[in-house]
Amino acid sequence: MSGPDGRLSATDTLPGVTKVDSAPPPQANPPVRRGPRRPKGPWSFVVASARMGWRWLTRMKTALIILGILGVITLLATVVPQEPNVAATVADWRSGEAGPGVVVSQVIDLFGLYDAYGSPLFLALLLLLFLSLTACLIPRIRAFARLARRGRPPLSRHLDSHPHHIAMQSPRRPDEVRADVTALLTRRRWRLRAATADGLGHDQVAAEKGIIAREGGSLVFHLSFYLLLVGIVAGQLLQFVGQVGVIEGQSVADTPAAYWNVEAGRWFEFDDHRGFNLQLDEFRVDWVRSLEFAGQPSLFEADVTVTEEDGSVRSDTIAGNVPMVVDDFKVHLLDWGYAPVLQVAVDGEVVWEGTQAAQGTDQGFFRTAIKVPAEDPDIGFQVGVYPYAPDNDDGVPNFTGAPWPDAPVAVVAMYEGDLALTSAQNVNILDTSRMELATTAFVRLGETVEVADGVEVSFPELRTWAGFQVSYRPTVPVLLAGALLLLVGLVPALYAYRRRLWVEVVADGDGGTLVTVAGRTFQRADAFGREFDELAGRIAEVADATPVATPRRHDADDTTATQRAATVSATAAPSGVGTRPDQPTDSASS
Amino acid sequence: MNPELADLSRTLFSPVALGLFLVATLGYLYAMAVTKVAVPATDGGEAADVSGGSSGRTALRIATAAAVLGAIALAAHIVVRGMASGRMPLGNMFEFSTIMALTIVVAGLVVFQWRLHRPEVMGFLLLGTVLTMGAALLVYSEPGPLMPILSTAWRAIHVSAIVFAAGLFTVSFVFASLYLLRDTAERHLRASLPGGSVGAARAVDLGDVDDGLGTVPQRQSPDDDLSALDGQDMDGLEDEVNADYRSRMRAAINPYRLAAGTFVGTSAVAWVFWVTDGPTRFLSVTVTMVAASLVAWWFVPYLPSASTLDAMAYRTIAFAFPIWTFAVISGAIWAEQSWGRYW
Ligand code: HEM
Fold first, then answer.
1. DSSP state of A24
2. Which end of chain B is more exposed for a tag (fewer CB within 10 A), N or C?
3. Which portions of chain B are predicted below pLDDT 50?
4. ipTM attached to this prediction
5. In chain A, positions 87-126, which contact chain B (CB-CB < 8 Å)?
6. Residues in chain A, pLDDT under 50
7. Distance, in angstroms, between B148 CA and closest chain A CA?
8. Which residue of B has its CA nearest to A334?
């Protein structure tokens, strides 16, 4: 049965062995087998194409390609401005005012890259990816379930055909050694198949480990993407996001009409609004007061009072990173600006008076507009408030662009003509297309200036406004759960490795035992190399064995390769492998 | 803000840390080059000890000292800069790149040099550190305060995890690039050996797979690299064989194609520099990468075996990937908390 060195030699045969891996192994990439009957008739083309498409779809390579394209799109979306986020920038790119020009812009539009995550290309690829994932996971889960329940490693006929093997000599009897080794492996949670239990003539124990952790981890990891998908899609449908600015001392109600800007999912109903009332009691903002870091805020918070529909009242402070939660709606403080109190008098009579939330600009001023249709012709003012414009030596304001309100100046440009108020307009922007510039002036805080004949503008007070975002995202817990599952699956999927070990005990004829240990891993060869060495040492310990003629690993592999080559060519191997001694992949030790 | 501390932190970064790392790079590369090109140690096996005589050992010692001192200087730079600006030094690209660089050196020293005894890979890890620090200088900004909107616990968690993972990914990038070069050379060499076949790294024997589970085994090199050379009794042949071996390994890779490929590959990302800063910055980035790839090409014969490099790249990615995943998740949590959006 066994060769002189206690191992089975390649040419031995075992009588009555059935559960040994003597069949040729499956190939890594088996050729697609044609079915016995091929469909005939007009449908055959359709059926065949659908089959081919399905096969293509369920390949890992396809998933990787799709994943890669999605990655590229995501990457481009970080460079190309996204319409849902910065619509104004996109408009500038389209018109050629900014960005790479009109032609490039058209190409970008062609691929829908101004709204990358909502583009048909992106959604179609996502759908394909999940189809692919589903098609591939179903068989994987089935196989995993089968393996987890019943999988046991096969016995091995040629222990020295494995990348790791070592022979040892023990003075103890084979059955004692086997019992101790079995106990050791069981303690270390290896799955075992003992040759004796299968009625085989040979005393071999096959063991396997890492099945559940690696494949199970990978499955959990991939399944978590479904949870994420559900969370994202349902979130899109159910969510509500609205932005609104509130001037200090004023309040706003949670009704659709009150928001400046609304982004609501299709399943978000009018009744889902909570109808609370949000009052801005005080808004505090401050900055690093050096011109070098101008604009870096150091303080940003708002005291608010919320009155819910049931009448309960709550006061809270909302800061940049500390939202307030009202009935599952989150209120964030995101924006702010100045709200100048302005007054226009014509011939001593006040024709306009108001406080508007002026919009911040990149140039450091805050823009608003005054529209007085009561005059003939209409008059209008473009107003830019510079919060810090101290007078320089010749008494002219020096417009620093700094945001702190130590020397506020309103620059007003007066226009005459037609305000065109019949069309919808932004309160902060004056439509000057049918107006003529009459004059410009600057008005310091607390001053009244006669800007034109009989027209006076006063700037009695500078107030602030705070911009709130009210959002409702009911699927956050689902997404968190998905993210957690993803991590939980990922770690074992990357670290665990599936490996097999064989221990053979053979009486050496002197009352002692020859112990052969062999091992093979499916992943992470380096980690298994260390584990094998450690395990072999432990086995030697429990068996009181000492290694015999342990060859260096190079030599071992070399002899194995040579020996295998001989075996393969002697047994009519599949074409093309017999002449390649270092190519164990395709050649079975048959 | 404290200008003296800011000055000190700048000095510690460059010339002190950068200079020390340059010395360490050269020392490690020299030590690798004078090390006898024996049959490379096998997958994660014992150390490829520096048997290249005393000059190699001295160079290695100097390089290690320089790397340790440089790491200390860089860590000091980070602390001083944090003191100068009165906050955690994780606020802008310059600070991220600095910590990435520190991660590379520390991971290299602790894991690859001291634990796995692989000083040969340190030369290129230090080269990666120097290049990362050079890139940091391109985006240098004075220490300054941070927007309060940015300062939350989640932000600190998110950013430090991202930067740590990015440093480790740089390590794996170095290993993966070296693997590609080395693997090409090994295939070429094996194909030219008597009885050799093409394919250095490939699937392991699937002989015992019987469960129909579609697992794809990790690639490994089953015949322990150049074991065929073993049979030819390398030990007996001296320098000329080594020289011949080296030139044959280098001949496997066409340096012009390598340079062109590196240029094109780097340009795929570096065009952004052209758009934002003009052609000079674009060219300095791409040309530097091309030069680094040619240095790596020259050192191909001295590198660890392809299967070793593959295993080290896998290890590094397997460690960094979950950290990076966690960092992305924590970023989404942070954004949701701060802005009510996921990013
Ligand atoms: C980014 C992290 C990911 C990693 C590291 C990863 C890794 C893997 C691994 C190791 C396999 C197993 C291959 C095998 O054993 O046959 C696999 C299969 C697969 N994964 Fe992923 N995956 C990732 C993300 C995704 C995502 C996001 C999807 C789709 C939503 C996806 C879809 C697939 C598909 C369709 C397969 C093919 C299954 C098969 O052919 O057996 N993967 N992936």
1. P
2. C
3. 37-51, 195-237
4. 0.75
5. none
6. 1-19, 22-23, 550-590
7. 6
8. B339
